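# step 3/5: fold
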Amino acid sequence: RAVEWTYPTIPQWLGLLSAAEYVITNSYHCCVLSAHYNKRVGVVPLSGGNAGMNTRLDALDQYLETPLCKILSNNIEKIERSNPLRFVKDVNATGRLFLSAALGDS
């Protein structure tokens, strides 16, 4: 069967992200927003010519209370056992205020 792709609007995408039980991504920005929503995240590192972009995710680890859960095979059980992403306290206060204002959260 053919896969049908849908592209939600930004508000729809943020709504999906905030309601998700867990998130599987290779996106730095999705990881940051997942931490904002305290979600469990499985990161699938990029490979080949795009592998250099993984350094952004590696750098993000220093701002999180627990390390990112990297998925190197088709094992999502690792995500189910992981802790939700949370920023360390000093980043959390400033970042959450900015994100809340930017995203219109209360």
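# step 4/5: annotate
The first helix runs from residue 10 to 19.
# step 5/5: archive (pending)
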